[in-house]
Amino acid sequence: MIDLGFNSAKLVIYNVKDDDSFDVYQQEGVKVRLGEGLDKKDLLEKKPMLRAIDTLKIFREIIQLNPIKSVLPIATSAVREAGNRNDFVSSVFKETGFNFKVLSEREEALYSYVGAIKSLHIPDTLFFDIGGGSLEIVHAERFKIKKVISLPLGSLRLTNQFDGKKGRLTSKNLKNLHRHVWDLLPSKKDLGLGKDTKLVGVGGALRALARYEQRLSGYPLDKIHNYKISHKSLDSTVDKLSKMKSDDISKISVIGSSRAETIVAGSCVINTLMEKYGFSNLHISNHGLREGALSIFLEDPKMYDDGNITAEQIRKIIGLGTQQKTSPEKQDLLNNLYSMQLISKRERNILDYAEKNISEKSSYSNPQSVFYSIMDEDLSLDHTDHLVLGLSLVHARHSKTSDWLFSRYKTILSEQDKVSMKKISVLLILRKILDRTKSKAELKLHGSRIVEFVVTPSRSTQTFLLKDALRKFEAMFDVKVILSTRPYPGSSHSVILEL
């Protein structure tokens, strides 16, 4: 994927798997400032165009060094708005061989929405993507698109408009910028936001803000995806940054020189958006435009070329109705545990996620490798549940390692999280034994504290391991366990075994 934006050009090489899932293999980014001067004459200027073409030539050489099957070049607001866009696109093709798809406002917004929500699975959202030149907004209810808006509120564009060439936005200019953004944003009523709507955002400025906020607060987990930032915290961060010159901001390692000039304007847009619509928290996705565009291309190359993506296709790509299903036996076991109030709804969800998505991680020999591999994934779980999931799989292998890891993240974990970790780990061990021996199990509750595990064993069932796992279950859940076996599913004849 090549993403040519208002401020930067990015090359991301993805490794696409047989099931069309993908992960990043290599990525490069260059600040080309293609949109510089665009607002004066509605034309791309010569120097920015040359910078962009030179960067694309470098990208071409990187691509030639790798076994790339498909190259998808996309351009957004700077090229889209330029009166000389056709000349520029032709020049790029002549100089580099890249045939750019210039995204419409709707395409850019929806592609970005798909990329973000596919990885978060939040049904009712006000989604935004803040780039260098524009702000895309998508309102969705139950994953159905209700409204798509694109506004000229990109961070570089607003910096050029309000900075005044003094190295930072003055207090007066910042107030003018706030008023400008407020006036351009549609009203909450016009958007039709409901009480369950959550705010989800993507964009380089937002990610930099989140990293800075994490550093200021001493957040122990180095992860941006599905991080939540409060309006109060964001407001405080914006206040700090607005009093600093761009040279000083560039020295903040988590922001860097590439974002130093534009982050104040970008953060002001985000802060104003939260203020106007009354959101107290903001969910951040690490996925957006590029991931959405690639997902759409993999689903249907013709749909990608035409740009005519429907609401039903969006729902399909996000994964609704097509996710890997937990087997009925596993689902019944989880349902029984939940109905018996042995696990909470939250614990059930974490277990369900473990069953569906990351069983292969348990084959890793090093418990820490299991943990870091899981934490490196961008899951739809929030950070606390994500940690509990990773720690549970480690605890099933090596309790001392899980206790050490737990202590590293204790500022964002609770004692109840530790209990959940231990409960889930016991159930994962039990589930693993049943899976590997191809045995089936169902639960029966006798009174309030006696649980009968009725197992239909296969020839390879490891009875000793099963009994050991059930003894751990007894201790963890504070119940009396009865183990009985029957020769085949549905048989009324069973034999009770001693633990």
Unreliable stretches: none
The best one-word shape is: elongated
**How are the strands of the largest sheet arranged?**
8-7-6-9-11-10
| Overall tally of domains | 3
Q: What is the CA-atom radius of gyration, in angstroms?
A: 26 Å
> What class, by secondary structure content?
alpha/beta
State the helical fraction.
Answer: 40-55%
Question: Which CATH C-level class of the largest domain is it?
Answer: Alpha Beta
Q: How is this structure best summarized?
A:
The protein is α/β, with parallel strands linked by helices and 499 residues long. 50% of the residues lie in helices and 17% in strands.
Task: Quickly list its features.
23 helices; single chain; ATPase_NBD; six-stranded mixed beta sheet; Putative Exopolyphosphatase; Hypothetical protein af1432; Nucleotidyltransferase, domain 5; Ppx_GppA_N; 499 residues; five-stranded mixed beta sheet; alpha/beta; GppA/Ppx_hydrolase; elongated; 3 domains
